[in-house]
Amino acid sequence: MITIPSNCHRHLSSKARARGAETLTTSPLFRNPNVPFLALRHRHPGVVISCSTTAGGSGENHQQLKIRRPADENIREEAHRRGEASGSQGFSACYVPFNAPADSTETYSLDDVVYRSRSGGLLDVRHDLSALKRFPGSYWRDLFDSRVGRTTWPYGSGVWSKKEFVLPEIDPDHIVSLFEGNSNLFWAERLGCDHLGGMPDLWVKHCGISHTGSFKDLGMTVLVSQVNRLRRDPLNRPIAGVGCASTGDTSAALSAYCAAARIPSIVFLPADRISLAQLVQPIANGATVLSIDTDFDGCMRLIREVTAELPIYLANSLNSLRLEGQKTAAIEILQQFDWEVPDWVIVPGGNLGNIYAFYKGFEMCRELELVDRVPRLVCAQAANANPLYLHYKSGWADFKPVIAEDTFASAIQIGDPVSIDRAVFALEATDGIVEEATEEELMDAMSLADRTGMFACPHTGVALAALFKLRERGVIGTNDRTIVVSTAHGLKFAQSKVEYHSKEISDMACRYANPPVNVKANFGSVMDVLKKKLDVKVSSDKSAVGDACAATDEWVHNSQAETSLSSILPCIDEQTTNLTLYQSKEVIVQLVNVVNTVSLVNASMVWQNYTCIVSDSGLYATPSRVTPDIYQQLAVTVTVSCALDHYMTFLISLQNCQSVKETFDLITTFFCPQLELDLRVVNARLGLISTGVMLCLIFWVLYANRPQREEVFVKPYETKPQQ
Ligand SMILES: N[C@@H](CCOP(=O)(O)O)C(=O)O
């Protein structure tokens, strides 16, 4: 095993320091991610590596901070200045005929513009594995791990972090990267748990959460980088542009990478067969977009003819360079599992380059001893475009292209896949399986996955539907670590999701449709919908009727105070009024549920038939079960419910302060004048009465002061003098 001892550290020459060159420490965290170590020692001019001879190290902390690159230097220039990754470093790759016999000597430089072998077969990129094998698997694992998620050019990219396995000879200066890869490996916990019999180790590799929204970015960075290299010094090849036929994802990736590199791009699209989002991507990126009245297979034939005539470089996966980038998704999966190999990887298949790319990534890691085996591969096709599935079912007997029918998985609507041989090879080498999914199966699988927190594209739906079938048949076990490859971002396929959720698709039940609910703009309607949707009860306990009666009594006697019913009075606030009225209505609904088969109108009478006699000891003396007590409560309940029901409209009308104002206006306009007149008459009458009373008093006083008759005629016996 080749490692740098932990007590080994580099010193920079003072000249290198002055130029802003980096310092390097031996901690894995700070180790230079840019270059295989041995090559670095001999090549970098400003760097001296010194190693302590003391085994185990001195315990000193040799970690040093990285010196920031000069402010006027960008990351590409920094990589260029350091020159660490330029040149082949002893690694190389070339084209060979795909699956060539061991004694074949047919090879081509990657700088050649060639897509087919002499016999017309596919090509493959072959790496000098003996050079790569000079380093052990642990070395490559550590090197790749050390580069993840940085901004170091170009290794921050998930593709270029594996540069030695991809395009070892390209100069970083020629690389066109948008820091692709490093995509999310999504733990599909809920999908596995709720819908796949409790699968604890189900994952979705979201290759579509990427710059242009599909896995094509992984291959396109490699292809466009190579074209960039060919067009620039010193090769200066007269390549006028890069072209592809596409069902939408390849064209989006090609146009974005070409735009970034100032290279013209040309895309052939089957008219009306790709999503709007996919169509607008190359348009926005300035590509020459040809919308052709044929299907993808027709576009593919045309682009091959055109690229044979014009200096346009072919960007479809017929060009095996693309697969070198795409295979890094497989290496990334291994890396994300800390180099443990999953049991199954399920890949949607159309033109079939990607299933081979995954195989190649896994197999390369096995061969170079980063891991000890490869996973089993499943290729999933739409039943409407299933030439590989039919081929598999025939026992690989006889491949026949098909006319691909319309499918929601439009990116894999391909009947004559260019990489059919590669796919068969990959599946045979991994004891693989091919599955298919009908339109309903793929849309249901996609929508179900969405319900668990994803936003899958229909092609991912195809792979998920295959997973459901393989689980059902017991081929994939509960505890198998399984990866579903999600190839594109669901947002590119919003239209198909809209159709599904609107149940607009003929002959499809759309089982997981979740259409938006149109609701009137009032509180009660909104509450009704939410209550039904969320299956929640608005609080109103069983004694609501009793409470309501008590509260009503309280309010009648003290209407100005803040009582429990004061909230149903208008003009307090609309929100409170709304809630109270809604709760009142709920009481009625619940009571109606209680009375069950009888209506509010006749409930009291019907229930009377069920009343029973209860003995003093509390035992039922007759067969019925409604005790007189309960009957009384029920009867009151019904009466109050009827009242609430009857006055509901009125109560609702009161929720608006305006109606109360109008009522008061009426009173003052029509009743107040009459009241005033009546009051005046009453006052006048009261005045007359008062005057009368006063006169009576005066007369009484005057009359009382006159001498009385008895006083004039003295009584003889009272006035007789004494003798
Ligand atoms: N699904 C592809 C079809 C073209 O296939 P490719 O393997 O040549 O990229 C697309 O998105 O265009």
Automatic annotation (TrEMBL):
Pfam families, A to Z: PALP
Catalytic reaction(s) noted: O-phospho-L-homoserine + H2O = L-threonine + phosphate
Cofactor requirement: pyridoxal 5'-phosphate
PANTHER family: TRANSMEMBRANE PROTEIN, TRANSMEMBRANE PROTEIN DDB_G0292058
Residue stretches making up the Tryptophan synthase beta chain-like PALP domain: 176-487
InterPro entries: DDB_G0292058-like (IPR040283), Ser/Thr_deHydtase_PyrdxlP-BS (IPR000634), Thr_synthase-like (IPR004450), TrpB-like_PALP (IPR001926), TrpB-like_PALP_sf (IPR036052)
Biological role: Catalyzes the gamma-elimination of phosphate from L-phosphohomoserine and the beta-addition of water to produce L-threonine.
Pathway: Amino-acid biosynthesis; L-threonine biosynthesis; L-threonine from L-aspartate: step 5/5
Catalytic class of the enzyme: lyase
GO BP annotation list: threonine biosynthetic process
Subcellular location: Plastid, Chloroplast
Transmembrane segments: 682-703
Keyword Transmembrane helix: yes
Protein name per the record: threonine synthase
Family to which the UniProt record says this protein belongs: Belongs to the threonine synthase family.
UniProt organism field: Zingiber officinale (Ginger)
